[in-house]
Amino acid sequence: MMGNTADSAQATNNNSCAVFQNQFAEIQDAIESYRRDKRENVAIIGLPYSGKSTLISAIHEAYASDIFLVEYGSQITSKRGLLDYQSSKPIFVMDGCQYLFSRQIGGFSVLDDFLEEVVTSNSLFITTWNLYAWNYLRRVREVERIFPRIITIPPLSDTEMRECILKEYTDAELQFIGGVDIELPSFLGIERREVSLPLKKEPVRVPFPRFSFDTLVLRKRKAEETLSDEELVFRKITRMAEGNPGIGKAIWKKSFEYPTVNLKDYQPVRIVDPLVRKDAFILGVIAMTGSTSREYLEEVAASEYDINPTLYRLLSRGIIMEQNGGYQICPEAVLGVHDLLRKLRIVWE
Q: Which helix (DSSP H) or strand (DSSP E) does residue 329 occupy?
């Protein structure tokens, strides 16, 4: 294992990841446990744009002398591109592990090699995974047994969203246009619970009605508040983004014309028309990988159909975008895509 280093003192006071302090502390605890000869590999899970890489970057900055950092941004198709295991550093931090497999014949060979290396190594592995890929791999590879310490990226609060967005500005240079309606959470909701049913090997998630007294109190308290234009804007952004920092930044960018921030004219991406099954399948592949090349999509689709019409429809609706040679979900469309894929059961929950 490894002894204490000067980095540990720095890590306890690290402020580069202020919005994820609890998750940062949990990873610190995993590292300190590893130093005491208790190894618990870490999986950091979240939706696209949720801040996984931000958290990883802060950990790397705090423990730089002990960490070997690997950042995957595209599909890894051979073990040669997987990782340099000759590194003398005791901790491997790996960002974007959803790129280690593909849903095609032979598509798990790299992932299986990686998992074999993890279970036979004495090193600590801190990894990030796309939520959809992780849920899928839990079923087909039981990855939670190899990465038992699972950290889910939480939504940001209004204050955290403000801090995340405004760190590049000064308060004096911005003007906020108020009059923004805030949609408060409903005190009636649906909660999915796992229920065991006859003839089913695995529990089934069944919706149950849920009443939240705390939300009812919150609605009453919020109705009595008097908020500034700035507070209204960031509360609205946080609600629209459901606390996802990447989505929040995208909403901000589309509402910002220096030096004015105006949410009144912002039009969110809406997936109104049901996508045909072919479109939804390709959309699910893109969502699971994060950034996907045309070649990979063609391989997944095989010769069953032409993906060009599907890509055209998704691009023209503002659901996906082409960036750095790959296709990915537009930040503003992530939540709508998430709901659609769950509804059509394209992704695992």
A: strand 326-329
